[in-house]
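Quick note —
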Amino acid sequence: MMVTLSLLALLLQQPPAPADIVLRNGKVYTANDKQPRAEAVAIRGDKIAFVGRNADANRLVGPNTKVIDLRGAAVFPGFTDAHMHLSGVGDREMTLNLEGTTSLEDFLARVKARVDQSRPGQWVTGRGWIETFWKPPVFPTRQDLDRISPNNPVVLTRADGHASIANSAALRLANVTRTTVAPSGGAINKDSDGEPTGMLIDRAQGLVRRLVPGPTEDEQDQQILKGVEREVMLGWTQIQDAHGTWGEVARMRRLYQDGKIKIRIYKAISGPGADADTLIARGASLGEFGNRFTVRAIKVVMDGALGSRGAALLAPYTDDARTTGLITTDTVALKRMLLGALRSGIQVETHAIGDRGNRLTLDFYESAMQQVPADQRKIAEPRWRDEHSQIVNMADLPKFKRLGIIASMQPSHAIGDLYFAPARLGLDRLNGAYAWQSLIKLGVPIAGGTDAPVERGEPLIEFYAAVARKDMQGRSGEGWHPEEKMTRDQALKAFTLWAAFAAFEDAVRGTIETGKLADLTVFDKDIMTVPELEILKSKNLMTIINGEIVYGVVP
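Predicted structure written out below.
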């Protein structure tokens, strides 16, 4: 017995197995309340092997360990974008990117340059314009586009994806005239004479979009790969890709199989409809390709966007009393789909921006949960999500907590939308707008995202917007409700732990803890302490996914 105990003691004194990577001399923010700060992190395989002091981390350094001196750089759990559109980001990189246009003249100049490079009759498409900062902030018209492209058909999507402007050539090809009836869930804007202005809202965009030649197979691959390349470079370790088809799923699986995708993707299928029904019948597919790819959610679009006056409101728009916005989904099919999703353990995430859109979403969720109680569900806690949760009536905020609904929100919307939100809504309705702190105080997790390519899709812009709630020049204004901003600890959790929770992955990722998956993001500045505007000057130094440095500039 004494020999056995001696051997056991000797074995217990053996040094731990060497780590593959040791990061030391860093400012490590773990998002783990039990051990919020550290100096060093060690990685073995795809897992975190140690979190703590530099001196203790040295015990894990072996002859083949890659040791990286961070020289004071800041280490965080791998940042997660809880709401974005991957192929849209890639398409923006490959086509006419109208992001950042400063005026109608700037917008038209960029479009003209592309028209001048195009063949006669070739479609000219692009995305990213937003009139918010133009003077005056008004939508472009088909006549504006006709001046620079009288012959080539042109259709250009607003940044939010919920509206497009088309020129007369495009409208003629689509047979859109003053007598054309908009499809359900869409609108054709008209001038005072009853003629189409060229602005097509939500589902009406399809009248023209169906004529635009689609991308080739290779171009669709490149959309995904260019999007992934950008996300990894920015420091994202997982993206939660809202919307999708089974064709996209097959494409992503092939690209993973070929070793071309390293980032984690949490993929949603669009619904209601046949594709969503297929997911409900098949059930979720979890953790493919080394825990990198999951398909378990259905994405629904309840209403439109605030900027294009498609967000569904309880009362008319303050700046256009003729409309209360649009409901853009088949609510009869949706109700049936929700019941099936609950029974099969499929998560539902619903785009809801206006106060009526949010109320309907919460009411439909509640009705489904009442009809399918917990003991009849595959997953008792479904973790259904309200995507955007932008304009919520104050009376509806407690429903998030009562129903266990996750608020999936994009902070940059607040620092952009609030330039025009007071005009669209009036100041009173802004009390429940972008209500991050109110929801957090209720105990509602906020999954932080970007909605790229609607927004630029950069983690540091989103973190800044969450903690400053000011525009990118540091300005605030009436209706911006600074009391709703997040603390830096809350913002960190929104893009790490709470985003992981929204994907049912908080037990395996989202914090820097021993045994969790080794996903890390390293920024050159300590965004937890630097002045607010300095956050925007930071840059990503290193992205580690599954224990692999997939992007890195060693400081």
